[in-house]
Amino acid sequence: MTHEDSRTAKLIADAINGSGKTQREIAAEIGLERPNVISMLKSGAMRLPIERIPALARAIGIDPGMLLEVAMQEYMPETWSVVATISRTTGPIHAFPEAQINIRGPAPVIERFKQLCLEDRRTYPEMLEILLMTCGHYP
Question: Considering the entire predicted model, what is its pTM?
Answer without folding.
Answer: 0.62
